[in-house]
């Protein structure tokens, strides 16, 4: 959009097209519900101004059926749009399996992205077309919000928890990436570029970016450096749970309940290990709060995710 | 028509007015007369209105250019925070209830004062105290959290005087609670003989609904603000995850108050517009019971929609769906009101004076603001529009296009009653038109900007958005002139305006059956009401 008077944002996905269709239909609803009021006011002002010769006999002041009409009809019309919008929201909030997973860490006032291959970027996000992409996001300080206007998508990014967003971009191009949750002094500058590329160009970009191994491999190095492997490793003498294949499973806890071993569970287990202790183990793990950054935790999660369900850990 | 005597305003028969009851400063500052307290409120909220407008002016000027050049970043953040805090808590929430509710409710129900006159004066002093806190924050350097005070930005990261700002809002809240309490008791206990609930003007119904919200919702804000101050000042972890808190808890508590607060701001406006439409159409409001109960329905359902501010905040998807549905539901009683107002105009005797201009402006802007609000209540559309200028446009259509238009409409309609002087009809219409068009030029571009992807609270923006921003600022200039004009011609009318008769508009309400301005105790004797509300003769007959 370089027009001097832009009117509509570009669309980078089929989902964005569906949103645009909905909002145009909604505009038609607005016009049809507002028209009786606006036209009525102007017409009545023109016809029934004080002293005008218009006929005023039998001026009504009540009517049950007319009340019922203008209560029920707009409501039912609006309900169509409630369901329509809720359905699209459901689609937008339910990521498909096998999405390309990108980790996002926000801080005052920048965006950091980590690709599964270990590529990192700041204030720029490269993604391929034609493939679902899932962002797992957290903040190091205040609440931010990732806004990708050309995808018609937005999600708040909170400290101490993960939020996710998924999309499939369809049209290559360079688009906007902005923060839409007021986050302090330079909120307005917390933006960058969202670059959608053909898969071939995306692969080339991945190769051109310097990496020290995949995100999971970096996580594994961290796993050793922080001493996690001393207890959770294959040859550990300390009685600690084996992490292989736990991701996405229900873990029995010592209080008799179960917890889903997802990103949040792993993060909590690193920072607050005594909160949810797996059944059959002692609460002996120390907290790593303050010792690992949000980006490092995301690498550790990538490592735990990469561990196969069967057999031993990779060397 | 037992009380109204046509010669009540002739000098010989005229009893001493409430204004003539005393001219000393002391007689005003220690008054317990609801009418004088209304005037005290009018003067103070007018001051805060123009203070808040200064914040808006700074924001609009900064946004003339894409780069940050007029202010520095925190200065801009302080400007919009000042604008929000002052306009919401020191103008919009008190505006119509404390000025017109205070002045008119006793007159409309046939009472000599509110139920607790001294409490009424106390609530003004509490308001002033809150105002002093705000002035302190302003002088000390301001606060840059936005009026929404989101945690943990407000409790940990923002450098400004957040605790003091929270204290200001906390204090002024008690003023609201006391006013609400006073109205509820007054409406229950002080109605004149024969003034049954269904003979009350809709203005009184909507103030009753507003008062219920004031009393039930404001304490929640007070509690939330205490928690915020405790965390900020003493490090007690409530919202900050580093201290074991939950940042989303603030949003739940804040919006549990602040969404109902939107209805605190708009329900009195709806009451005003009902009075204006009936007064200047000379016709009973269409569907009285529906309009009356719609206020109550809004007050109740309004408590159950706060989660629509949190569709992208990390709230559960299914919770969002429920909140979205309830937000569609709360639009129904608003729609009922709007259609009933339009139907009231049908076959009326439309006296196209400034108050009716404001009322029709209100209806048009409220309809558009309300329906675009439904876009924000629609889940997938809110995901795109949330946090952008689209939201800013939506709530300004309701709060400024709606509530401020209604306030000005009320000011013109009851100015003769309150001051005993007629305003200039010519200038009244000019300013109403300036405000209507100036408002649309200011805020319609913000819908477009928001949908294009312009976030709110940005001091710098992509250059391609500039044309719309310039247009918006130009509209704001027009709007500013529209707001300054009434200040001039209304003050002028105090001295030079023609004396107002008791009932210049030929209206039917009880307040028009006493002299203008009313005597200190309103009624010589308490009226016995034997007629329905809006007891206008059939329009055809009046013509002859």
State the total count of DSSP E strands of chain B: 0
Instruction: Write down the overall geometry of chain B.
Output: globular
Kindly give the count of domains of chain A. 3
Q: What is the distance, rounded to the nearest whole angstrom, between the alpha carbons of the first and last residues of chain A?
A: 51 Å
CATH superfamily placement of chain B: Cytochrome c oxidase-like, subunit I domain
Mind summarizing the main beta sheet of chain A? 5 strands, mixed
Name of the CATH first level of chain B: Mainly Alpha
Low-confidence stretches of chain A: none
Beta-strand level of the residues of chain A, as a percent range? 15-25%
- Rg of chain A computed from alpha carbons, rounded to a whole number of angstroms: 27 Å
Query: How far is the N terminus from the C terminus of chain B?
Result: 21 Å
Mean pLDDT of chain A: 91
The biggest sheet of chain B amounts to: none
CATH class of the largest domain in chain A: Mainly Beta
| Strand segment count of chain A | 12
Question: What's the helix count of chain A?
Answer: 7
Please compute the radius of gyration of chain B using only Cα atoms: 23 Å
Instruction: State the order of secondary-structure elements of chain B, H for helix, E for strand.
Output: HHHHHHHHHHHHHHHH
